[in-house]
Design a protein that fits this description.
Layout: E1 2-5, H1 10-30, H2 41-50, H3 57-71, E2 83-84, H4 87-92, H5 108-123, E3 130-131, E4 138-140, E5 144-150, H6 157-173, E6 179-185, H7 192-215, H8 224-230, H9 232-253, H10 256-260, E7 266-281, E8 285-298, H11 304-317
Parallel strand pairs: 2-3, 5-6, 6-7
Antiparallel strand pairs: 1-8, 3-4, 4-5, 7-8
Helix pairs in contact: 1-2, 1-3, 7-8, 7-9
């Protein structure tokens, strides 16, 4: 299980998001579209981010997660970007309403594929190309195929895994890749109320301790939120609980029958999840913390050095995921 946490302030995220909107607008212009990016839901998100202090903590956390995920896509506009994608994919992620809790929105299907491609590019600098223009969701250097499935409900996990495994076999048989992975996103399946309540309770405990340190001069008041967010003990407690919730969702719906469907063409089934917290302090303000995590089931057909190589590959992807 791997976990990545980010504690940028809102000002940083707003700057990145505004720059992303400009890049998207330029791309649309070059592709012949008259669509105005700020007339889509992204313009609504930008306005809400500028006035985030007006939102409650839960809505602010939802907005934080959305902005953080979109900001990852700025990598596809770099001059040396290795990601080849279809223009229609970017149009798809602009569709929908400006909702603050969007894990069940349809655009997540395409977005998951785009974000996986971007993360592969970030994780493996030596990669030549990451192709999203074929029938396969993502192909890395014409060797590794990744079939991506964003889950909208628990009942779809088994069916989507089976579909992804079958598609992976088809891609290999067609010569598009040597082997690969099935990647699923279980974010919409997590009990976010339970995670939120747990995280807030842990935060309150750490806040109380840090306030006492302020009183005796061991910590400055305006450092409390950042201190808590960067505390390895705090992170371990939160990440451990969320990882447990994600593992429960995955293994409750992934069993022997799914494992038996894994041929030598599938190295592993990877699952990922994302969410965000928002912690408030009356004197130090508000700190957003988007997070993401990942786990996996390696094909039991692989052992020894082969299994170790697969684990190393997945762990290399973890910071991007």
């Amino acid at each position: 299980m791997a976990f990545t946490i980010n504690n940028r302030r809102y000002e940083d995220e707003l700057g990145r998001f505004t720059a992303l909107l400009e890049k998207l607008q330029e791309f649309l212009k070059q592709s012949g579209s008259n669509l105005v990016v700020r007339s889509t839901k992204l313009g609504g998100y930008e306005r809400k981010l500028r006035d985030i202090g007006l939102l409650g903590a839960r809505d602010a956390a939802g907005l934080t997660e959305i902005i953080s995920r979109y900001n990852q896509l700025d990598a596809i506009f770099l001059e040396d970007s290795k990601v080849k994608f279809k223009a229609g994919d970017l149009h798809s992620i602009l569709e929908g309403q400006t909702v603050l809790h969007d894990v069940k929105e349809d655009y997540n299907d395409i977005f998951f594929e785009l974000s996986m491609a971007v993360r592969c590019a970030a994780s493996f600098p030596g990669i030549a190309t990451i192709d999203m223009t074929s029938i396969c969701d993502v192909i890395v250097d014409e060797k590794i195929a990744i079939e991506c499935k964003y889950l909208h409900g628990k009942k779809g996990l088994r069916d989507n895994v089976a579909k992804g495994l079958a598609q992976l076999d088809q891609r290999v048989d067609a010569g598009l890749a040597k082997a690969g992975f099935v990647a699923i996103d279980v974010s919409a399946l997590l009990d976010k109320d339970k995670i939120w309540e747990f995280a807030q309770g842990v935060f309150d405990c750490f806040l109380s301790s840090n306030e006492k340190l302020c009183k005796i001069g061991r910590l400055e008041q305006d450092e409390i939120l950042v201190q808590i967010a960067s505390d390895s003990n705090f992170q371990s407690i939160i990440t451990g609980f969320v990882a447990h919730q994600a593992e429960f969702v995955f293994w409750s719906n992934f069993g022997r029958s799914e494992i038996e469907k894994m041929t030598a063409n599938c190295y592993a089934v990877i699952y990922q999840y994302s969410n965000a917290f928002c912690f408030d302090d009356e004197r130090d303000g508000r700190l957003p913390i988007p997070f993401r995590g990942t786990g996996y089931c390696i094909n039991p057909m692989f052992s020894g050095e082969a299994k170790g190589g697969i684990e190393k590959y997945i762990h290399s992807m973890a910071p991007g995921i």
